[in-house]
User: Fold this.
Amino acid sequence: MLSVVVPVHNVARYLDICLESLAAQTHRDIEVVLVDDGSTDGSGDIAAGWAAKDSRFRVVHQANAGLGAARNAGAALATGAYLAFVDADDVLPPYAFEVLVNALEQTGSDFASGNVALLTDGKLTPSPLHRGTHRETRLAVDPREHRYLVYDRLACNKVWRRSFWGETRFPEGVHYEDIPVTVPLYGRARSVDVIDLPVYYWRQRPAGDPSISQRLAEQRNLDDRFAAVTFALSALDGPFATWYAETALQSDLRLVLEVLPDVDDAYRARFGKLANAFLTDVDPAVLTRLPGRLATAWKLTQDGDLDGLVSLVSSVRASAAPGAGMAAWRDPATPAVRATAADWVDGRLRIELADERLPLALLWLREGAPGNRVVALPAAGGSGTLRPSRLRGRPGWQPGEWTVNVAPARDAARAHVRVTEPLPFEARWVDQETLVTPLVRGGVLRVVVERPAVVAAEVGSDDEVLHIDGRGELAPGTLLHLERAFGVPSLAYPAVVSGPKWMARVPLTDLVAAIATPGVPDEPPAVWRVALGEPGGPTVPLPAGPRVTPAKAGPVVVDIDPRGILRVTEGR
Assistant:
């Protein structure tokens, strides 16, 4: 069972939609512990009403003691093998706990962390804080080998294994309770699961009703933020501690640095005192690894030159694009050559770069080992065109991955073509056995050649069952999985094997049960990717064969995702 702790304090405006999203979770084995923390606006009555109508909800009332104390009180009452925290003004998509718990059940990791979307005036946008940490799903990773994960310091986008959580407690009577808890737990964890799907909708309140994280210019927030970061650092040791110090100077502490032009002298003096105390415990080499202007800002802080610091921050803010964040502090560099499209035109792959006027000297693909071949592309203006057959070797088509490279002008440095924004790439079958797919890996545009041994050959349905028939050898006992996140099965069905063919049947009632009311109107429809795997083993995505066409099946549409993988999508 999963225990969900929800502190409640004067959030009557938002509480119902939050609790509705919890009641609609497709992971049904939950208990919701509502801790009414001395509310005076009727929030406690709303919480009690939910406990009266849904046996999975219960409410306790206490005098106002703050968010940390309310979370601790709820955790002490939780009885589940898994633990989660939700703030009462936020919202969850219906699949959130299903995906996180399923990941932990499969991997045995200490906790699972999902992507976050910002909820602003009813609209969802990606969280900039999680753009890098949750770019792709990674299961059972060691935080010491993926130290960038510590940039994700929220407690509420995670499910914790209770045996790992142990006697952990949130600090009480302060703001920024998450940092002193999540950062040390990253340091303790053997492995964590990272899910690219948004599992948490983090509400951004309007200007007249700001949340704690939106009130950076208040001196209490300044004190509590430094206290949280300092405590987290003291709980770590070795290289992980050094890395976290660097992270804090670029993230949490940079945020208070950036408000210095807007605050009074007392705030600035307090900032200088707290920052110098923190920097005293930081290895001086950390500053040398920061972007130049940010390193200068912290050096000015150490030197006590607050006037120079405010002037520098003002100039950085003035030259930055709105919402630039950390990018505003990075040193000027030669702009990367970026792709804005990689689409198919008349059977050829057209690669278009960001500036059509860019004079290209060279545009080419280089194959990874073992072939390591190079294919130059005809280029004109800011685009190049690839005839897929040029990737075919003398023995015929072979699986491989090709990296797209460019030299923007004669004698210019050669570089990879980067992709910084999501693009609608599409896989194409170039013959009955060969699939060619443009994709992004590590921020670099690549072209992958695949020769799938197993594919879906045909899909269809009757009134009660979705039929998926395939070709290719499967081991006895293979299961067909429907996955909301790659590698994290949600639904599984046996594949009945008959020589080089197989078939699987999915009851449409299962799909109906797995489709829940959206957490917010702007939420995208439910999607499952289809995969194959032996019981207890890893799964492999199932490509849709060249003859598969989209089909309506009861409440869903069966179609093909941009990678050429068979998928099932809620038919809204």
Observations:
- The radius of gyration is 26 Å.
- The chain has four domains: 2-212, 215-329, 338-450, 455-570.
- The longest helix spans residues 219-234.
- The chain is about 25% helix and 30% strand.
